[in-house]
Design goal:
The protein has helices at 10-17, 21-29, 51-61, 78-92, 109-114, 132-141, 156-171, 186-196, 229-235, 241-244, 246-263, 363-377, 384-403, 409-414; strands at residues 42-47, 68-75, 103-105, 122-125, 145-148, 176-178, 203-212, 269-275, 289-295, 301-308, 315-322, 325-331, 340-343, 352-355, 407-408. The strands form 2 sheets. The chain has a 9-stranded mixed sheet with strand order 14-13-12-11-7-10-9-8-15. A hairpin with an 8-residue loop joins strand 13 (340-343) and strand 14. By secondary structure, it is α/β, with parallel strands linked by helices. The chain folds into 2 domains: 10-182 and 366-382, NAD(P)-binding Rossmann-like Domain (Rossmann fold, 3-Layer(aba) Sandwich); 185-362 and 392-425, Dihydrodipicolinate Reductase, domain 2, CATH 3.30.360. Bound molecules: nicotinamide-adenine-dinucleotide. Nicotinamide-adenine-dinucleotide is lined by residues 47-53, 74-77, 80, 107, 109-110, 126-129, 131, 149-150, 179, 181, 234-235, 250.
Amino acid sequence: MSSPSNPVTRRELLRSAGLSATGSALALAAVPHVHVSQDDTIRLALIGCGGRGTGAVGDAFSVEGPPVKLVAMADIFPDRLNGSYDGLKRSFGDRVDVPEDRRFLGYDAYARAMDCLKPGDVAIMATPPAFRWVHFRYAIAKRLNVFMEKPVTVDGPSSKRMFALGEESVAKGLKVGVGLMCRHCVARKALFEQIRAGAMGDLVLLRGYRMHDQIGYFASAPKPADMSEMLYQTQRFHSFLWSGGGAYSDFYIHHIDECCWMKDAWPVQAHALGGRHYRGDSVDQNFDAYSVEYTFADGTKLYLEGRCMRGCQNAFASYAHGTKGLAIISENGHAPARSRIFKGHLKDPTAVAWAYGQREPSPYQLEWADLLDAIRNNKPYNEVKRGVEASLVTVMGRMAAHTGQTVTYEQALNHDHDMAPDLDKLNADSPAPLQAGPDGKYPVPEPGRKGMREY
Ligand SMILES: NC(=O)c1ccc[n+]([C@@H]2O[C@H](COP(=O)([O-])OP(=O)(O)OC[C@H]3O[C@@H](n4cnc5c(N)ncnc54)[C@H](O)[C@@H]3O)[C@@H](O)[C@H]2O)c1
């Protein structure tokens, strides 16, 4: 489908896609930004067939308009791929067109799945975030549009790589969505407009809370003997900083991002506390509790309180305080946000100054509606820079807690701790980026003892 305003033939596009790496960015900047395929169908390849990736395919299918089909799948574990395929096939029938020869396994499966697509189709990246830059680089080379889950980086070096790849994808006119779905929420958008219009006065404080039991791969029992280190650390990505950014980057990014959105800025430094308490035989690298004080350039603070601990009070909410009162950015989960503003700083139901108050469509579906609309109507659409910035702000807070030092945005970005160098060359049998000690335990952060290194 070519845009009426920017007609381009399929032959022209394929010829331009074959340009050399050095010549491509400049030359392709002149190529019209269009979704091209022989018909209107947008084909998807799912890379990382776990909970979120499978959900993302359903969200893509929820969008009305010309057909969307899943045509290829990739994972490193057969049970994950098969379970995802069976569930999607049961729910969506013919829209899932993935015969066995388009289901790929292994650390190189991503490339074979993307090879099934044509320029302008969409690669869904829902693996642990460590692999984002490896997979995104390949998608850019193949001129694919992308939906990638958050976080998109885990440390300074991977952030630099993704910033550069993001710029390259913009230059090529690729449409890229990043799974910070709250940014697509209608209630939060309306609150943002209220704040910009001065409904709360100046923002003076933001607070984010995510506190619950241990979930996902937060804690990990020692590696089973019949599994390689690489597979084990990849699978249990919330446990290991190189593969998932740990619980801090993975769990807390949404609250950090929505608070920074309302402030319309990223913090310049972080100062933090955290600790490990009840760990049993768990060998993960996480702290149970994090309390991070972020500071914006104008001195305003954002406090992020995160905890994974059974038996304690739960919380899942973000708030903004302005000189005129308090706003609930979101409460009780990501959606519905039920955003509202109170006169004063108490959640007093008799003093509501503004409330969104309407039905809130799922932001997981809205982010797909926005991405597919951009692809079909050739609108500029690229969320990578913002996704990297949000990811880097998680790295800054996590690093501050893990080192016990104040960490600036620039220090986080320019830090030389490359947690998984050469990830593009590793496979299931490679030595893992993190090695256990003789006691079978992996290095954990020790604030005050390891200088500016997290481990
Ligand atoms: N936006 C949200 O609200 C939200 C919610 C949940 C998860 N996520 C994000 O989605 C991503 C996946 O999380 P999940 O909960 O689906 O985890 P998951 O473990 O259920 O799924 C991850 C899948 O990726 C596969 N995988 C790992 N490395 C791979 C590789 N190199 N190549 C191919 N496949 C690989 C795993 O085997 C697994 O099937 C994470 O980045 C997570 O933060 C986002």
